[in-house]
């Protein structure tokens, strides 16, 4: 079977994440694209223990990848603007499509790169460049394309948000938390880009162009970072009912576009205020849709790779399939549908909240808990409430259990003479990933 051949330049945090996601999900990705995606060539100064590249051709010089006639799509993950610009222009000149996570490159040289791509009839995709794994460029450029966009406001630097959150929740100092964000692979090669707002300004530049149809104008973004924020500021803001978040804001005022990146007090009760750690969130207000909110991991190896690989898939689809089925109707190709069964509710597992009324007698609770344990149900918490009309309300939270087992247990519990048979059951989902 033919395959789409990608060349990956740069094998750091995002490069290794991209290799791992492409390899781990290769089967599903091929079903979505219609052909396998093959990593044909990697450009890296050294191997990265975070991923296995055995069997893949490796060059020390990334230009070998951009000049490899076998490569259909060049994935630029080296970062920086000088070599990256030259590399991408070289690959475009060789007729290759480009995927990049590099917001500095797009914000500062995007106008030139898009022109070159147009001349050579190739595409440039950069979903990973803004808000990491959140498909925000797709949402803004396609999903909201009917709207006049009024404003975009977001937490778009994971490192900065991680630092502010840790300072607030752990009362820890700036330098210590920054070092941790670097170790986790969130920070830019030069972390002043994160803490002084440069990275957020790169991303805002891109968002604003897609929101308002203006050229990329990085030099016009007003930029302030978080490096002067102290724990005292965080605490004082809290006393007034605010949290400090580093926001990128792009607003169409009717008289011009505001483009600004700075620490901002926002009310504690709004959703953006609850975005913590490396998570990003972007709010977009469109004239038709109203306010919308997009949330997810803004940095890190695999969240970023999620967007890089989605771009590879999109370009792969353009290379392989009939135009009318570029994105297959149901996401996967019609001849690649899975016959994995849909579970009946009895086979679904979740936690349960149970509220029952029992007689105020010795041994009743023991009967109930024994029936639960007979059915492999373990109790997470149990509370006995005030006696109500001669019966004692009991509330039980259980750990995750198969619904069929819970049904068996509830049938037996309801049959006890000492338990009212009107038992309330609500399923519990903590939704932790
Ligand atoms: N780390 C993250 O969470 C995110 C990173 N990005 C962007 O992704 C890109 C890559 O970032 P990371 O993977 O974090 O950086 P990184 O520093 O971990 O990886 C970059 C790799 O490229 C290599 N490299 C640089 N210049 C090279 C050259 N001339 N030849 C060969 N290898 C070269 C470096 O040795 C390093 O291994 C950057 O543009 C960054 O802004 C975007 C979203 C999130
Ligand atoms: N350094 C960036 C990485 C993702 O874009 C961040 O912390 O958000
Ligand atoms: Na994104």
From TrEMBL:
InterPro entries recorded: ACT-like_dom_sf, ACT_dom, Asp/hSer_DH_NAD-bd, HDH, HDH_cat, HDH_CS, NAD(P)-bd_dom_sf
Any GO BP annotation: methionine biosynthetic process
Keyword Cell membrane appears in the UniProt entry: no
Pfam families xrefs: ACT (PF01842), Homoserine_dh (PF00742), NAD_binding_3 (PF03447)
UniProt similarity note: Belongs to the homoserine dehydrogenase family.
Record NCBIfam families: PRK06349.1
Protein name per its UniProtKB record: Homoserine dehydrogenase
């Amino acid at each position: 079977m033919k395959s789409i051949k990608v060349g990956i330049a740069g094998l750091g945090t995002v490069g290794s994440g991209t290799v791992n996601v492409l390899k781990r999900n290769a089967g599903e990705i091929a079903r979505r694209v219609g052909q396998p995606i093959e990593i044909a060539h990697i450009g890296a100064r050294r191997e990265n223990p975070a991923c296995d590249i055995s069997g893949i051709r490796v060059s020390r010089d990334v230009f070998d990848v951009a000049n490899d006639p076998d490569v259909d799509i060049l994935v630029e993950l080296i970062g920086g603007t000088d070599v990256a610009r030259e590399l991408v222009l070289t690959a475009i000149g060789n007729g290759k499509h480009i995927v990049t996570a590099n917001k500095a490159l797009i914000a500062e040289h995007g106008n030139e790169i898009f022109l070159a791509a147009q001349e050579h009839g190739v595409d440039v995709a950069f979903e990973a460049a803004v808000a990491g794994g959140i498909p925000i460029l797709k949402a803004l450029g396609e999903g909201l394309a009917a709207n006049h966009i009024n404003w975009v406001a977001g937490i778009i630097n994971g490192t900065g948000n991680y630092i502010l959150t840790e300072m607030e929740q752990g009362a820890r100092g700036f330098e210590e938390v920054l070092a941790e964000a670097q170790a986790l692979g969130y920070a830019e090669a030069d972390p002043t880009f994160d803490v002084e707002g440069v990275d957020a300004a790169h991303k805002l530049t891109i968002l604003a162009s897609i929101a308002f149809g203006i050229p990329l104008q990085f030099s016009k973004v007003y930029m302030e970072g978080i490096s002067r924020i102290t724990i005292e500021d965080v605490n004082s803001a809290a006393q007034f009912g605010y949290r400090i978040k580093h926001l990128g804001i792009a607003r169409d005022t009717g008289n011009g576009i505001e483009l600004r990146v700075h620490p901002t007090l926002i009310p504690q009760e709004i959703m953006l205020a609850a975005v913590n750690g490396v998570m990003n969130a972007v709010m977009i207000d469109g004239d038709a849709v109203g306010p919308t909110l997009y949330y997810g991991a803004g940095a890190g190896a695999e969240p970023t790779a999620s967007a890089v690989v989605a771009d590879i898939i999109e370009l792969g689809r353009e290379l392989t399939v009939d135009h009318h089925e570029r994105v297959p109707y149901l996401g996967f190709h019609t001849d690649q549908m899975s016959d994995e069964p849909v579970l009946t509710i009895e086979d679904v597992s979740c936690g349960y909240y149970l509220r029952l009324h029992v007689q105020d007698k010795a041994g009743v609770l023991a009967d109930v808990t024994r029936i639960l344990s007979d059915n492999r149900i373990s109790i997470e918490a149990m509370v006995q409430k005030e006696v109500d009309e001669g019966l004692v309300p009991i509330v039980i939270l259980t750990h995750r259990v198969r619904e069929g087992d819970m049904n068996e247990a509830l049938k037996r519990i309801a049959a006890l003479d000492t338990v009212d048979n009107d038992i309330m059951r609500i399923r519990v989902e903590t939704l932790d990933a």
